[in-house]
Amino acid sequence: MECTLAQIVTEAVLRKPLQGPKMNSGSIIVSSEELSSCKEEVTLQFCGKKLDKKDFFGKSDPFLEFHKAREDGSYVLTHRTEVVKNTLNPTWKQFTLPVRALCNGDYDRSIKIACWDWNSNGTHDYIGEFLTTQRELARGPGPSNSFDCVNAEKKKKKKSYKHSGMIEVLKCKIDPVYSFLDYIKGGTQMNCVIAIDFTASNGAPSNPTSLHYLSPYQPNQYTQALYSVGDIIKDYDSDQLFPALGFGARLPPDGRVSHEFFLNGSTTSPYCEGIAGVMAAYQQALQTVQLYGPTNFAPVINHVARFATAVRDGTQYFILLIITDGVITDMPQTKEAIVNAAALPMSIIIVGVGEADFDAMEELDGDDVRLSSRGRVAERDIVQFVPFREFSRGTSAQAVEMNKARLAKEVLAEIPDQIVSYMKKTAIKPRPPLQRQPTLPTAPPT
User: Fold this and answer.
1) Are 124 and 118 a contacting pair, CB within 8 Å?
2) Helices in 234-367 by DSSP H: which ranges?
3) In Å, how far are 364, 400, 406, 415 from 382, measured between CA atoms?
């Protein structure tokens, strides 16, 4: 089935036939409603008392379904609780939803809550339902939020029927939801730290096959990745000074191996002026250091973590961009460093260049399974890994620009949510928006 957004919003209810292997594959019904600007979330918890017994060999396996009323009076399912097995007096786990999901921000709009008995074959048995509103639920636990769970069919058949049990509110807490922009407008500064892999597996910089080869005709993958991500992050950095680190190289004059050296050659300050300054420092470092190894991430992660530890009040947030060509050789230490950093105002972006096997990197990018180390689970998912080869197709100027935009979008997609997750976990509210000077001069007096 294909349709346009215009078709969805102009039709009250859009019904389209499904195209499949059979002549009649059914149809799909699409309806739309404009979401309100409500920026609140509600945390709810319910319990049931003396629900109807539905199972022949047991009691009931009850769960709740929450339905939002639409503008046309119909209801749409928006949330389903977990199943509590073999009980007539269940207590469901608390859950959090956007207020928009329950009532679209209208506290007096009807909410239908239905109770069902779960069956493994999917044909669940109906226990009963009741109607309420967000305004009623907001009163919290008490007699006014103890609801008769009514089965209308039973009520028609039995004059003595009262209800199929009671559903009670145990908790209702409404909190404001702050966005990434709320914190940025309130003055939260993003600090980008860049770390570049100088291990020998990249190949000698003088060799055209090297990932560090500085061609006069097109930028190498390190340069492309740096510009793509840096050009986005720099707009959030007010002072335009970027700490730039290198790792995995032997340094002059004594040839010692370092996994945490300043790219600009300074012994006191790692800061470079703008992304152009980082690029200049990178190119200069290629002329002065010897590519070596191994590929250790933990030192640069811990370096940034030390700064993040000192500023945990929400005024600053740190982003570490690691550009690397190979598999990590200090995986246990890196996992430990990331788990520690997950409690700090810090995110890590890893861009993998070249054709190496980056499967181990997926473990660090805890989208599916939260990263853990020595029995401790990371408080947040703070790592985003992207293989650069997926964004390096084509050599024309247009292709390079498109790849640059796609890469920046991919690696930065999770940063806003990661910033908000840190602020929420540490109960930091955004400060009032900063008063900014107008960008245009006022008109001269006449």
Assistant:
1) yes
2) 274-288, 298-310, 331-341, 359-364
3) 9, 28, 20, 8
Facing residues of 263 across strands?
Answer: none
Give SS3 for 361. Answer: helix
Q: Is 345's pLDDT higher than 80?
A: yes
Q: Which of 33, 179, 29 lies closest to 104, judged by CA?
A: 33
Q: Has this prediction a pTM greater than 0.70? A: yes
CA distance 70 to 76: 7
What type of residue sits at position 202?
Answer: N
Q: 144-181: per-residue pLDDT in tens? A: 999 999 999 999 988 889 999 999 999 999 999 999 99
- Region class of 178: left (phi > 0), else alpha (psi between -120 and 50), else beta: beta
Torsion angle in degrees (nearest 10) through CA of 133, 138, 142, 145: 10
Among 282, 296, 287, 322, residue whose Cα is nearest residue 204: 287
Coil/strand/helix, residue 68: strand
Backbone phi, psi, residue 91, to 5°: -125, 115
Contacts of residue 262, defined as CB under 8 A and 6 or more positions apart, other chains included, come to: 244, 245, 246, 269, 270
Per-residue burial over 269-286, b = 16 or more CB atoms within 10 Å of its CB, e = otherwise: ebbbeebebbbbbbeebb
Q: What is the pLDDT of residues 47-81, one digit of tens each?
A: 999 999 988 778 999 999 999 998 888 899 999 99
CB crowding 142-168: b at 16 or more within 10 Å, else e: eeebebebbbeebeeeeeeeebbbbbb
pLDDT at 395: 66
Say how far apart CA 83 and CA 93 lie, in whole Å. 10
Is 69:100 a contact under the CB 8 Å cutoff? no
Task: List all residues 6 or more positions away from 212 whose beta carbon is below 8 Å from its beta carbon.
Answer: 198, 202, 203, 205, 220, 222, 286, 291
Q: What is the pLDDT of residues 418-427, one digit of tens each?
A: 999 999 999 9
Prior bond of 252 cis (ω within 30°): no
- The residue to which tokens 């805890």 are assigned: 366
pLDDT value at position 444? 53
DSSP three-state, residue 437: coil
